[in-house]
């Protein structure tokens, strides 16, 4: 399984050894010595996975991860922390910061390779699901949306603009929800919001989880029935 990786670590010996092992495993590896340089490399490479040390000069792993997660392009980018700090509290801090895996030093390089492969495979499945989603024609989706709106209007639900349930949607999730209700597909939403299809997939998946729905049609029905979109003419 090939993939583009960015490895960020200020220890030359470890960095070179990990790079060599990952490249022997079939990956293309780009390196940086701190979070500041890592950020520049990530923007240039647009990798599949980032592997980063935590304790680094100039910009440490947490600040680096925060920079990644603050950019819509990289909010769904898998990040693995490598660190000598392996206490439970350190791992919790890493996961709360938004990393996808936390591997204390010293670590087995085979385990690192397995984690990288697992994360790339997960992302591939998300992309495949998105492609399956895109096979539904816009016209068919629009027809389904029209039927849902008609049903809800018949029930006299759409007139009340006050949400009947409360959800902790982020501003970007709310924007994606409104565009899904408008009948846009993932590629169209990505273009409209100037982000990646991968990120749109992530937002739609989060919306499914937060609303307890399993499809776009169910999500739209739920959003309209519970007044989760601003009142405006969507006909």
Summarize the structure.
The chain has 235 residues and is an alpha/beta fold. The chain has 10 helices and 5 strands, in the order βαβαβαβαβαααααα. The protein starts with a strand and ends in a 10-residue tail after the last helix.
Q: How would you describe what is shown here?
A:
Helix 2 (35-45) packs parallel to helix 3 (61-69) and helix 8 packs across helix 9 (197-211). This protein has 2 domains: 4-129, Rossmann fold, CATH 3.40.50; 136-225, Orthogonal Bundle (Arc Repressor Mutant, subunit A). It starts with a strand and ends in a 10-residue tail after the last helix. With 235 residues, it is of the alpha/beta class. The model has no long low-confidence stretch (mean pLDDT 82). 55% of the residues lie in helices and 10% in strands. The protein has 10 helices and 5 strands. A 5-stranded parallel sheet has the order 2-1-3-4-5, sandwiched between helices.
